[in-house]
Amino acid sequence: MRIATACFAAVFAAAVSFAQDADPGRILFEKTCARCHGSDGNGGELGPAIIRRLPQHNDQQLASLIREGLPGGMPPSQVNDAEMAQLTRFLRTLQRRPGRPIVRMKVQTVNGATLEGQALNQGFDDLQLRTDDQQIHLLRRAGGDRYREVTSETNWPGYNGDPGGNRYTTLSQITKANVAHLGPKWVFTLPNTGRLQVTPIVFAGMMYVTSANECYALDAGSGRQIWHYQRARTRGLAGDASGGTNRGVSLAGDRLFLETDDAHLIALNRSTGELLWDSEIADWHLNYFATSAPLAVGSLVVAGVGGGEHGARGFVAAFDQATGKEAWRFWTVPLPGEKGAQTWDGKGIQHPGAPTWFTGTYDRETDTVFWPTGNPSAEYNGDDRPGDNLYADCILALDAKSGKLKWYYQSTPHDLWDWDATETPVVLDANWHGQPRKLLVQANRNGFFYVFDRTDGKLLLGKPFVKNLTWASGIDDQGRPVKLPNQEPAAAGTKVCPSQDGATNWFSPSYNPATGLYYIQTFEKCSVYSKRDPGNWEAGKTYLGGSQRTSPEGPPERVLKAIDLQTGKIVWELPQPGPAESWGGTLSTATGLVIFGEEGGSLMAADAKTGKPLWSFQTNQVWKASPMTYEFDKKQYIGVAAGSNIIAFGILE
């Protein structure tokens, strides 16, 4: 919230006499701030509207903002507690008022129907109308005073589109022949945000995008805002959530599901943004947080938590979509005495990590949730946790209805390098060496590409997919990595490849059944890992066992790779100039394209068979998100978050 300098400075520097028959907070605001922000808070001659910004702050945060000021904006102000209470109470009444007058309209459609309701937003050609049944109608002018109703013919209803995790589309309008004519159709900027990590989802013509504790509903054809939900960010959080990270929502029926920074799961009405329920997943005071999109599965919604670098004990939990009541919970680290506890030999089990911060996938045929887990805490020092440390660095196959474990695979037993297994486990049905098989595929942060039979967890293939891999020579017959000597972190530092960022990470892969190739953005770089005593666990603080830095030997490299599913062989690769710091993923199409965020900031398209670059658009942003696609009003769009912007691309006519 930006409140003009002159307004509050004048308020708090002067003595104010309050009339006995009026709200003293209102009088205080009107005498000194109305010229800047308007008497209703909707903006004035010198200042912005503040109504929509007030929900960003709770009362304590609002008081701190007024007293401490903003760099380059409002200076600090001396306000006594009585004045602050009066002013805050009045500001909250502004917050509850409409941001602008309600405009009702009656429109005729080309099919002869009459629609009447609240006009949410409109331009020369488009109108968003909410009828009295709370349904949203997306309209386009069809000549004169008539409108036609539009929506999406092909949706993108979850983080990866398909719940199985494969970002592959059968939409066919954007092809190798016309991709050179791809260009931006609209841009929507999320205010007060940094590098967004969200993947937009689209359903019935509406797009939903998020930042921390915020959700925007947009017209997917124009980018116009329809509604905005926001709650105050939590102060004092540990981890990524403190920086505003959020990767998106999940949708089922008329409900959207969003994880908040303080590890709550909330449900919103998808048409209005109204809060339907709010369930605590975990107590954030114990170093939990949440950043990723939940996963809608049947009548449940499944969510995970962050906190691996802070000693939180990980778990996956499922909640009833209608009520928010918890249905089941699977802990990723057993308690002492439980099955698997023997893999934690020492006091490290007390604050173990193994978080579940990234979105899992779902197989409808076997009714199985596949959820990836993160690293153990005190990650660079394993002295207090000898053993494999189950179920850290695992893919968990969980029964969707009960949460019971069907099988698991641990990619990095006794992880000392922060190699979470939190890379998308992709559900595929494909021929495997000539026979139809139900597969699960993951390119892991540790540098190995895995193919499993997803019905029983049998490992079918485990092969390196990066050149810089020094910690293991391969995978043995038991499915375990064959570790190489002298690769553990040491006080003096140990060079290990891949780097702490991993050979890949949470940015999205995709698979094209026509080419048989799996497309993944990779890092070719190494880290120098240093070991130290993690000390005692404390709430609100990291719980590490050392540190890491990028190795100065050899320049890091970002490389798009196409992996043969049957053999693990790299069929082609596309190196990208730059410092290897971007985190954009891939989208593959039935028309033979791979669309991805490249290291230099461009959204690019390459030939799926050869890797030849075919198109690019420079966003001048460091990628932190992966592209998606949808069809709206019979036109195919590519949507992606770039910096603080959501950009929708289509063929320019």
Write the layout of secondary structure elements.
Blueprint: H1 5-13, H2 24-37, H3 59-68, H4 81-95, E1 104-109, E2 114-122, E3 126-131, E4 136-141, E5 146-150, E6 152-154, E7 168-169, E8 182-189, E9 201-203, E10 206-211, E11 214-219, E12 225-230, E13 250-252, E14 255-259, E15 264-269, E16 275-280, E17 295-297, E18 300-304, E19 315-320, E20 326-331, E21 361-363, E22 368-372, E23 394-399, E24 405-410, E25 426-432, E26 435-443, E27 448-453, E28 458-464, E29 472-475, E30 481-483, E31 494-496, E32 510-512, E33 517-524, E34 527-531, E35 546-550, E36 557-564, E37 570-576, E38 586-589, E39 593-597, E40 602-607, E41 613-618, E42 628-632, E43 635-642, E44 645-651
Parallel strand pairs: 1-5, 7-38
Antiparallel strand pairs: 1-2, 2-3, 3-4, 4-5, 6-42, 8-44, 9-10, 10-11, 11-12, 13-14, 14-15, 15-16, 17-18, 18-19, 19-20, 21-22, 22-23, 23-24, 25-26, 26-27, 27-28, 29-30, 31-34, 32-33, 33-36, 34-35, 36-37, 38-39, 39-40, 40-41, 42-43, 43-44
Your description of this structure?
- The protein is mainly beta.
- The chain has three domains: 5-95, Orthogonal Bundle (Cytochrome Bc1 Complex, Chain D, domain 2), CATH 1.10.760.10; 104-150, no CATH class; 168-651, Quinoprotein alcohol dehydrogenase-like superfamily (Methanol Dehydrogenase, Chain A, 8 Propeller).
- Helices cover 7% and strands 37% of the residues.
- The strands form eleven sheets. A five-stranded mixed beta barrel has the order 1-2-3-4-5. A five-stranded antiparallel sheet has the order 6-42-43-44-8, with no helix packed on it.
- Strand 21 and strand 22 form a beta hairpin.
- The longest helix has 15 residues, at 81-95.
- The two termini are 40 Å apart.
